[in-house]
Design brief:
Elements (H helix, E strand, L loop, with lengths): L2 H17 L16 E9 L10 E5 L5 E3 L16 E8 L6 E7 L8 H7 L4 E6 L9 E3 L12 E8 L4 E12 L2 E11 L9 E4 L10 E6 L9 E6 L3 E6 L7 E5 L5 E2 L6 E2 L1 E7 L6 E7 L5 E7 L9 E2 L11 E9 H11 L5 E6 L6 E5 L2 E5 L10 E5 L7 E5 L5 E6 L2 E6 L4 H6 L2 E5 L7 E5 L6 E5 L2 E5 L4 H6 L2 E4 L1
Parallel strand pairs: 16-17
Antiparallel strand pairs: 1-2, 1-22, 2-3, 4-5, 5-6, 6-7, 8-9, 9-10, 10-11, 12-13, 13-14, 14-15, 18-19, 19-20, 20-21, 23-26, 23-34, 24-25, 26-27, 28-29, 30-31, 32-33
């Protein structure tokens, strides 16, 4: 070959490299993470006033779980429908960034399932963090807007794809395709969870009406069982598939019908929301399944060889904590990550009662979300609150209900109610107070409003109010004591 031709060939090769899509460029290898020490579960709890938000739970052994943040939500959606379900948590390969992607849906607001499926949000809600403790404000990504006739975007998941050096976000959308309206799994690719590629069809089950909503992929080190990736999908059964490429072809390995488990088609124990987890330090995996049909919550089936469905077995040696765990995801934690998470949300704040100075047999309590002072409160938890750093100012205090986690005492029209935290700055201000020396007795306490500093918490005719304090009776009525 002549020197001129050789140089031309070299230039052409260089030009081709420059013109390759970014996804084809050489990628840095993922950083080696420290050994894993614990587990973090992100989940929602149900259709209650605060149930469709992001909750965290922690486990040391992967089977026994403890609710974090006193059982209250960790993240609140302030965008879209102002509620989220199905949170999926993903870590960057370098271990220096995390995202949570969730369904933008709040059934508790009165939305019907039919409206949600056919005229719902086509966006997903995203949060970002660098330390699992401090999270960004949420934002929306309209992943399904370009799908013709898309009715929704549900149950998102995300996984890093080493083959392309970016993340695959996949979810279910209900739409008309080839004359059939049903849920199918679609995907986009993204490097920052803000911009993304056009949606592509990912999973569609053959047959007329059989849709698919929930699916989750786990990467298996060393291709245990013969594949690098395994996928569990709720498609009438709980179908297990294997592949060596996230976006390549998948091989069906079977389902869990031999365990009496299905997603409805096979009857038996009807479940949804498959959620993978590898046990730390060993080749054993748990597939958590939500027993929604019976309301019993998640149960694990475990396996040491995902390549064979006959290897799965049911387990009974687990505890899920106080709250109901609904469709979410599990992140294995390094010791440093675990320490950060538990340092922020792991401590249990003791329960207090708020005793009235003028009527010392009476305590602040909620009843049908109204707030008053009563004696002999039953159930006792109606008069128990956790005194936490102020929602609007950590130098102040807020009062969170013990039996309604995520609900706080707040003033509204200068009256008091127990209300779910909606994540707004107005709510935070209305639920924050400065604890000062008691106006009627300095050995007790009074609570000055954060956003109306000329007003204090007081009782009047046994009702709790926020009032200016102008005389001795008002000073006494505005005096309280925190007791156990």
């Amino acid at each position: 070959m002549s020197k001129v031709l050789t140089r031309a060939s070299a230039l052409l090769a260089a030009l081709c490299l420059l013109l390759l899509p970014a996804a084809q460029a050489p990628r840095a290898e993922a950083a080696a993470l420290d050994p894993f020490a614990g587990y973090l579960m992100a989940h929602f709890t149900g259709e209650s006033a605060t149930g469709e938000q992001v909750y965290f739970a922690h486990s040391r052994d992967g089977l026994n779980w403890r609710d974090l943040n006193n059982g209250a939500p960790v993240l609140l959606s302030t965008v879209g429908t102002r509620g989220v379900r199905d949170p999926s948590i993903v870590r960057s390969p370098a271990g220096d960034r995390y995202w949570i992607v969730a369904t933008d849906l709040r059934i508790a607001s009165g939305t019907s399932w039919n409206d949600a499926a056919n005229r719902g949000s086509r966006s997903l809600v995203v949060w970002e963090s660098r330390d699992l403790v401090n999270w960004s404000a949420p934002w929306l990504i309209n992943v399904a807007g370009a799908i013709p006739g898309a009715g929704n975007a549900w149950a998102p998941e995300a996984i890093y794809n080493a083959a392309t050096g970016d993340y695959v976000v996949y979810w279910a959308t209900n739409s008309l395709r080839d004359g059939v309206t049903k849920h199918r799994i679609w995907y986009v690719r993204t490097s920052d969870f803000r911009s993304f590629t056009a949606p592509q069809l990912y999973i569609e089950r053959p047959g007329g009406g059989q849709g698919i909503i929930d699916t989750q992929i786990v990467e298996v080190p060393g291709s245990v069982g013969g594949y690098r990736y395994y996928r569990a999908s709720a498609d009438g059964h709980i179908t297990i598939e294997g592949s060596n490429s996230i976006l390549g072809s998948w091989t069906t390995l079977g389902n869990l019908s031999h365990l009496g488990i299905s997603n409805g088609t096979g009857g038996g124990n009807v479940v949804e929301g498959p959620m993978w987890m590898q046990f730390n330090g060993r080749n054993e995996w748990a597939l958590w399944l939500d027993q929604y049909a019976t309301g019993r919550g998640y149960m694990p089936v475990t396996s040491t060889n995902l390549g064979s469905v006959t290897n799965f077995r049911t387990r009974t040696d687990y505890q899920l904590g106080a709250s109901r765990k609904r469709h979410g995801s599990i992140l294995n934690l390094t010791a440093a990550e675990e320490s950060a998470v538990l340092g922020r949300w792991g401590a249990t704040t003791p329960a207090n009662r708020i005793q009235a100075y003028t009527h010392q047999d009476r305590y602040v309590r909620h009843a049908n979300y109204d707030v008053r002072i009563d004696a002999n409160v039953s159930p006792a938890q109606d008069a128990q609150f956790r005194v936490v750093p102020g929602l609007a100012d950590a130098a102040g205090v807020s009062f969170e209900s013990v039996n309604y986690p995520g609900h706080y005492l707040r003033h509204y029209g200068f009256d008091f109610v127990l209300a779910a935290n909606d994540g707004s700055s107005v709510f935070a201000a209305d639920a924050t107070f400065r604890q000062v020396a008691g106006l009627g007795n300095t050995s007790w306490s009074s609570f000055r409003s954060y956003n109306y500093p000329d007003r204090y918490v007081r009782h009047y005719n046994y009702q709790l109010r926020l009032d200016p304090i102008n005389d001795a009776q008002a000073r006494a009525d505005a005096t309280f004591r925190l007791t156990s």
